[in-house]
Amino acid sequence: MSSLVYPFPSVPQPGTTIEVAPGIHWLSMPLPFALDHINLWILRDESGCTIVDTGIGNAQTRELWEKLLERFQPIRRVILTHYHPDHAGNAQWLCQRFGVELWATQGEYLTAHAVAESAAGYTSDAVLSVFRRNGLDDAKFAAMSGRGNRYRQLVPEFPHSYRRIIDGDRVRIGGHEWLAIIGHGHAPEHLSLHCSALNVVIAGDMLLSTISTNVSVWSIDPQGDPLRLFLDSIARYRALPGDVLVLPSHGKPFRGAHERVAQLEAHHRDRFAELKRELEKGERSAGELLPVLFRRPLDAHQTFFAMGEAIAHLHYLYYAGEAKRAAGADGIMRYAAR
Fold it and tell me: Residue 220 belongs to a domain with what CATH number?
């Protein structure tokens, strides 16, 4: 049985906040996905407030921000944990409104622009091409084609300058220092922030309480090993106090970071073991292995991320020397037990 502790039983209603530590306010914004909300944070700062993450850039979210901003002004800066649309969608809108800087890591800032402009290989067609080479079938391919630039729809604009944060920086917010911890695998340079004085860490998507973070292979790095990067990154949370209050982007704040890291490591070990048992039966592609990793029905949106995850798990096994692979005459990459 898990010993994670959840100090706050309820998620704040839209347009309201819960103070989870002195000066740290938790708010929730709706999302149009199966994962239906995101946690955002407002931190009381010297003579104002700092916003951490912003929600998707649509009218509903901005209307809720308008309601909240009646209580939290002036805004002094906006910090992003990473570039994904549920985090970055209102960054420009908020920065422009208050005339403030965006603070982010370089990898996240530049990736946001690349994805928004469909540059540097960040296109749906390029991703689907990788998925096809990894066994995505015709029906799933057709269901995911023609989506256009979904990122641009959810992040309609993005700042053209920023204040860079790098690993180990200490950002002063509300009279306290927050240590920048950079993680990889889920996003290029995902930012978490730890305040030892308050015993709080804003974890973003790196350490979620009840679901596993999406870790996928994408078209810009089709031979990458992001799952190894992710597992190496979450291990760094063991350097934090065991009772640190973790503020995740999805789910409820919790205590028990060390146990949660161990749970996630065990989860992926189990997935590796399942895949290896399947590969002992013969060659399999990532597309053929989707039912092994995901036992529930998947819609097109979920299949998009599931394919990326399946490839990431197979790449981990391949680079660890626990599986072999070869492209068939049809160009499909298939894996087998070593």
Answer: 3.60.15.10
